[in-house]
Specification:
Blueprint: E1 2-8, E2 11-16, E3 27-34, H1 38-46, E4 55-56, E5 61-68, E6 80-83, E7 125-127, H2 130-133, E8 135-136, H3 143-147, H4 149-162, E9 170-174, H5 178-189, E10 194-198, H6 202-210, E11 215-217, H7 224-231, E12 237-242, H8 249-256, E13 257-265, E14 290-293, H9 300-311, E15 321-326, H10 330-340, E16 347-351
Parallel strand pairs: 9-10, 9-12, 10-11, 12-13, 13-14, 15-16
Antiparallel strand pairs: 1-2, 1-4, 3-5, 3-7, 3-16, 5-6, 6-8
Length: about 350
């Protein structure tokens, strides 16, 4: 089979590899829709995960099951499925410790695709623990909606969970790319009273307002900390969701959130050795400002909840899709868009 791969740091290309086989608990899936991600850019061009050679890229997929292992009971060949970007090993001791996506032996272990195994940008791809990781896709949900669930939607929603957004609260969402836009939608669903959305691209700002943002903060107009606090009556916000930005964005979040407030970080810091926290804004360590950061949960149960939100009209993640390509080759074009980031791109999609 062919797949689109990271050849080495800074280089991508099409390669041939053997088709994967399903182990007893696993499945092999053929893609129906694939979405390139900024994380793929960090992996290839920043070497965020270290050097990788001939590793097939991609971790956002909707597909059709073509093979299952002998112990698989819930999923069967022919099923259309949403494939979460995070596919934990569900038969490990870590699930009893409440962190199935963080293996005790190494961090981010639930993130397997294009990290420690081949990803989904191929004619076929392997999914571990199929019954626990694959969610059947209802017929009335479009591929565009479904393809935004495996990473963009679930990660954005996890940002609101990590920030513990409460009814009537003020929330700042820093970064309104696709993940940040989903964080805006999630904050609104959790009852936020006022949502400051930080970003500069007009198209993203319009979609953020459509998802419920009350204020758009453009970092090109000055310091975002000052802009938000001035608009918020001189006070910090109750919650901050960090969904994008450079290394100093976490420090900005500490500056923005009020004493006793909570920061939820879902930003992938792909470069640099250290992240700084401003001492005074953190109350010399005593301001009761909580920072929660985490890899979004994976698995079938999580995806089924995302499906329920879309199926019942709570949110439409297909608004994120700005560019569509036909065929597997579309992932190469989509990845180039994510690298160059023209003003009109939010999320590209390859329909197979």
């Amino acid at each position: 089979m062919k797949g689109f791969a990271m050849l080495k740091i800074g280089a991508t290309g099409w390669i041939e590899k053997p088709r994967p086989a399903a182990g007893p608990f696993d499945a092999v899936v053929a893609p129906l829709a694939l979405a390139p991600c900024t994380s793929d850019i960090h992996t290839v061009y920043s070497g965020a995960l270290g050097d990788r050679h001939n590793l097939i890229l991609g971790h956002e997929a909707v597909g059709k099951v073509v093979e299952v292992g002998s112990e698989v009971r819930h999923i069967k060949p022919g099923d259309r499925v949403v494939v979460p970007a995070i596919t934990p090993d569900w038969r490990t001791l870590d699930i009893q410790h409440g962190v199935p996506h963080q293996h005790s032996e190494y961090l981010l272990s639930g993130w397997k695709f294009s990290n420690d195994k081949d990803g989904v940008f191929a004619e076929f791809f392997h999914v571990n623990d199929a019954d626990m990781n694959l969610a059947r896709l209802p017929d009335d949900i479009t591929l565009e909606q479904a393809a935004m669930m495996p990473d963009m939607m679930t990660t954005g929603f996890h940002g609101a969970e990590l920030a513990n957004v409460q009814f009537g609260a003020t929330v700042a969402v820093i970064g309104i790319g696709p993940v940040g836009l989903m964080a805006v939608a999630a904050a609104v669903l959790r009852g936020a009273g006022r949502v400051f959305a930080v970003g500069s691209r007009p198209h993203c700002a319009e979609i953020a307002k459509g998802y419920g943002a009350t204020d758009i903060i453009n970092y090109k107009n000055g310091d975002i900390v000052k802009q938000i606090i001035d608009k918020n009556g001189g006070k910090g916000t109750d919650h901050v969701i960090v969904a994008g930005g450079p290394e100093n964005v976490l420090a900005q979040a500490v500056d923005i959130v009020k004493a006793g407030g909570t920061i939820g970080n879902i930003n992938y810091f792909g470069e640099g050795a250290m992240l700084e926290i401003p001492r005074l804004a953190w109350g010399c360590g005593m301001a009761h400002k909580t920072i929660n950061a985490g890899l979004c949960p994976g698995g079938r149960g999580r995806m089924e909840r995302m499906i329920a939100l879309v199926a019942n009209g709570r949110v439409d993640p297909s608004k994120l899709v700005t560019h569509k390509f036909n065929g597997l080759e579309g992932v190469e074009k989509g990845l180039a868009l994510m690298k160059d980031k023209p003003a009109d791109v939010i999320k590209p999609l390859a329909l197979i």
